[in-house]
Design a protein that fits this description.
Blueprint lengths: L13 E5 L20 E5 L1 E2 L6 E3 L2 E5 L12 E6 L13 E5 L15 E4 L4 E4 L7 E3 L6 E2 L10 E5 L7 E11 L4 E2 L6 E5 L5 E7 L8 E8 L8 E7 L5 E6 L20 E7 L2 E6 L5 E4 L13 E3 L10 E5 L2 E5 L4 E8 L2 E6 L13 E4 L2 E6 L2 E5 L4 E3 L5 H7 L5 H4 L3 E5 L4 E5 L16 E5 H7 L4 E4 L5 E4 L13 E5 L5 E8 L8 E5 L2 E2 L5 E10 L6 E9 L2 E10 L12 E6 L8 E8 L4 E11 L9
Antiparallel strand pairs: 1-46, 2-39, 3-4, 4-46, 5-38, 6-7, 8-9, 9-10, 10-11, 12-16, 13-14, 13-15, 13-17, 16-19, 17-18, 20-21, 21-22, 22-23, 24-25, 25-26, 26-27, 28-29, 29-30, 30-31, 32-33, 33-34, 34-35, 36-37, 37-38, 39-45, 40-45, 41-44, 41-46, 42-43, 42-45
Length: about 625
């Protein structure tokens, strides 16, 4: 049974606690109904330590070439590749793709180049160029696949040899000995030997492809009923325009057949590696998924493809392996390729998926699931169903992408920062801050440690404008490079930053916090002052507090928090205090607290004096 409550209040000084925003941002709930540890905005703020308002440390901007990590301007993609031949050195393992001055031979006009690695090589696809490229060391690039010769070899008879008379057919393939891979063969050439001839002279045009260093000759005896070309010999290309080999024996009857499935890949947009094959999106057909020959990533037979039965004209946007399952993301739906062996698989729709992905960079494996960013928000897919992680800013997320070109939307990128235990999402938009439309918000950050421990998706934002990420998530020779995260911005300047946080906010801007609304209940109040504690840093920190009462902004108060010696080993705290402008009374009060350097604030209280009775009129 409800109890009656008096309408009078003592006109004495009181305080209300202002909890730190370590519960993350909430753009959905009313300011007066938000949880105590929630914030309307938390920009450049760390959520790692509950109960403390702590600035996010800055990021080091690479302005010079440090160990080969800084590429030229206009970065179109990046990847940290790890090759099985040896543990990579600091300079050779960073594979960064760029357009200007790039040896790749891909388009410089596209916004994004997709990179795929299998431990042996890195493939680069842009969805436009008719040929893809590859590298086995991160610095030199050649064609992805080997083109066959355009015509058959030139044949002539020789008198000395062990070949019997009859009809013969001869062809050849080009070979890259480093990767032990060869091309398909061209159309075979035929010749008939008489009783006086015992050998065949074969003249093969040398390849101009830099990766080709040898060729393999295949032959069959037509008059003996042989139907398959088989390997005769292999040798290095000679200098000049042609190479020559002489066939003198028919000891090929049990040798390997000439390959027929080593077809060059079509124009591909992006891809991944799963079940010892490469899988990629066909640029010519939005819902066609291509796959390579098993164990042969450069061989793409023409009939090795499947059409994904997307609904409503959807198309391939991303590919992500998850154990024995390959997830295929459309714009609004997820399909699964299921298989226990590399040659036995089937495609099924995911009934529990609620959204797709913006693009190939908008998916990332976190623990035993896949986080994907799509039109309806950020979801975590566990292989059966989606869990929405962005409910606190669902409407703002959907509004942010309205009217954007698809090429910009597809650049949305997300990554797990293993050093800070955070999920980071780089957005190509700057519309999520409704209070300051000119302020760019390019990165949303979720605390993974607290997500795992508390099962809460807690979000904050940074002001870094980012196009993509390059995580160092493999075996590094230098411990200082383990789990480093690079981010880059495709702005024509080649801006690259590392995730090794420093004491300054490098190019990111001030940290600030727009609080929830404190309420005095039915009574109006005079909001008088703010007090709390801070932990001194090595430099004096400027702190500004802008207050608002019943939605009307008051004057801004500025404070200088003193510094302390860096050698202190104790968690020393000092008090701060400031009166608020006495311009008006009201029922609710909130703040925007801004620091110009990294700061840590504790135990913040707001002082007020309530009016004795509620006001007897409506506003």
């Amino acid at each position: 049974m409800a109890k009656a409550r008096g309408d009078s209040a003592a006109r004495v000084y009181q305080t209300l606690p202002l909890a730190a925003p370590t519960g993350g941002m909430d753009l959905r709930t009313s300011l007066t109904q938000m949880g105590e540890d929630r914030a309307r905005l938390a920009v450049n703020v760390s959520l790692a330590e509950p109960g403390v308002f702590a600035s996010r440390l800055g990021y080091r901007v690479l302005t010079t070439d440090t160990g080969g990590f800084l590429p030229p301007p206009r970065i179109q993609g990046g990847l940290r590749a790890y090759f099985r031949t040896s543990t990579p050195s600091a300079s050779s393992a960073a594979v960064t793709i760029w357009a200007k001055g790039s040896p790749l031979g891909l388009s410089t006009a596209v916004e994004m180049i997709a990179l795929v690695s299998d431990g042996q090589m890195v493939g680069a696809f842009d969805g436009v160029s008719t040929l893809a490229t590859k590298s086995t060391n991160g610095s030199s690039w050649t064609r992805f696949g080997i083109a066959p010769g355009s015509t058959g070899p030139t044949l002539s008879t020789l008198s000395t040899g062990g070949l019997s008379s009859g009809g013969y057919a001869v062809s050849w393939t080009y070979k890259d000995r480093d990767l032990a891979y060869e091309s398909n063969g061209p159309t075979e050439s035929t010749i008939t030997l008489s009783a006086s001839s015992g050998a065949i002279n074969v003249v093969i045009p040398n390849s101009t492809d830099a990766q080709v260093d040898a060729f393999i000759v295949y032959a069959r005896k037509v008059s003996a009923g042989e139907t398959v070309l088989r390997k005769v010999s292999s040798q290095a290309q000679s200098t000049g325009a042609n190479s020559t080999v002489v066939l003198t024996s028919t000891a090929w009857t049990t040798a390997a057949e000439i390959p027929t499935t080593h077809t060059l890949p079509p124009t591909l947009s992006f891809g991944t590696v799963w079940k010892n094959r490469w899988w990629a999106a066909d640029a010519a057909a939005p819902n066609r998924l291509r796959l390579s020959e098993i164990y042969l990533p450069q061989a793409w037979p023409a009939n090795y493809y499947v059409y994904i039965p997307f609904e409503k004209g959807d198309e391939l946007r991303a590919l992500q392996p998850l154990g024995d399952t390959l997830l295929i993301f459309g714009y609004s739906k997820v399909y699964m390729v299921l298989g226990t062996t590399p040659t036995d698989f089937e495609i099924r729709p995911s009934i529990g998926s609620r959204d797709g992905a913006f693009g190939p960079r908008a998916v990332c494996q976190i623990d035993n699931g896949i986080v994907h960013a799509g039109a309806n928000g950020v979801h975590w897919f566990d292989g059966q169903a989606d869990t929405l992680l962005s409910d606190d800013f669902r409407v703002a997320w959907q509004e942010a992408f309205q009217g954007l070109a698809s090429t910009r939307v597809m650049q949305t990128a997300l990554v797990e920062d293993r050093r800070t235990q955070e999920l980071k999402i780089a957005l190509p938009v700057s519309r999520l801050d409704k209070t300051s439309a000119a302020t760019p918000f390019g990165e949303w950050i979720m605390d993974l440690s607290r997500f795992r421990a508390e099962h809460r998706a807690l979000w904050t934002v940074s002001r870094r404008t980012i196009t993509g990420y390059v995580p160092f998530d493999g075996p590094e020779t230098a411990s200082s490079l383990q789990n480093v995260l690079y981010s880059f911005y495709n702005n024509g300047l080649g801006t690259v930053r590392t995730s090794k946080e420093s004491t300054g906010i490098d190019g990111v801007g001030n940290a600030y916090w727009v609080t929830r609304a404190l309420s005095a209940g039915a009574h109006a109040a005079n909001w008088l002052d703010v007090r709390g504690e801070y932990e001194p840093s090595t430099a004096a920190t400027g702190l500004t507090i802008e207050s608002w009462v019943d939605g009307s902004s008051l004057a801004t108060v500025s404070l200088v928090l003193s510094s302390a010696a860096a050698s202190s080993v104790y968690d020393t705290r000092r008090p701060f205090y400031t009166p608020l402008p006495l311009s008006r009374a009201g029922r609710t009060c909130g703040f925007r607290i801004t620091s110009d350097l990294p700061v840590r604030l504790f135990n913040i209280d707001v002082g007020f004096v309530p009016e004795t009775k509620p006001r007897q009129f409506s506003r």
